[in-house]
Description:
By secondary structure, this protein is mainly α. 76% of the residues lie in helices and 5% in strands. It contains nine helices and two strands; from the N terminus they run H-H-H-H-H-E-E-H-H-H-H. The protein has helices at 4-37, 39-44, 48-70, 89-144, 149-157, 188-199, 208-292, 304-328, 330-341; strands at 167-176, 179-186. A hairpin with a 2-residue loop joins strand 1 and strand 2 (179-186). It starts with a helix and ends with a helix. It is a multi-pass membrane protein.
Amino acid sequence: MLSDPLCDAWVASDVLACTASILNLTAISVDRFIAVTQPIKYAKHKNSKRVFIMLAITWVISVAIAAPIALGVNYSSERNVGDCRFFNSDFIIYSSMGSFYIPSIIMIFLYWKIYKVIRLRALKAKKAKRMRDVDRRALQGVIENPATTAGAALNDTGGVYGASEATVTTGLAKMDNGRVTYNTTTSSKATTSRFLATHAGDDGSITNGDTSDNADATEGMLSPKKKTKRDHKKGVTKFNFHMRTSRKRKEKSSSKREKKATKTLAIVLGVFLVCWVPFFTLNIISAICIRYDLDEYPACNMNPIYISMAQWLGYINSFLNPVIYTIFNPEFRKAFRKLLTDPCR
Length: 345
């Protein structure tokens, strides 16, 4: 059995610890909100001083909420010796608002904004993916189907056989004295015309030997170009495959991170509300019963076991928070590992 001063000290320390736990969660939500919505600003101003200021603010507010208990606000003439609970309805409402309801509203709002930002980025990533696919197809078309204007430019300058020849550009270019030239092949019709004009005899006949030599020469001229073009297309295909694979890997990793972040937010906020809503709901009911003297109602004469269960459920939340954050957030995991291992070194 504790005396009244010891009971007040115990209740004040309980309020202080629970309020500090909840306000630290609020501070984490503010930190995550800035990190997600303003990553450049967050990285620029990320330092130990800022962290210490946030921690100091949470503990100052916690002390301000718990201090009235230690100053005698919880005194009541109806109080029994060793009965360590709240007796001042005004303090119950004041502490409940400062310790839970206001921080909860802030957390819900900030996590909702974070969720919206994450969803918006996911939609933008999908839109960017579609645009990249369009650009990739266009780029592939440009690489595999070079402009035919180069062939027209060659014809305009006057080839060996005149501008009337059909020219096909292979897409392979070379630099000669500052001038870009393209490897071209003439169409079969133009090649045949040149062959007849060159190798026809006076009587219009064509010798077999000349035909064989010219065919070999033509084959020798076209085959390397066809092979080069085929190798070029193979290289382009391989390059596009690697680009596509790398892009898919990055998009998959980004999507995975977004889903994991959303899942973490839902778990943190869900566990927090499940653990603390029952206790603070009973707290408000108790304040109403005390203020308006409603002891005859069943809700005002609840079994103390239920109140203790709700209170311990809130305590469990303080135990679960480090577990949740270390499982789902590598930065917190690294920080906890550093706190636990560095002092031992």
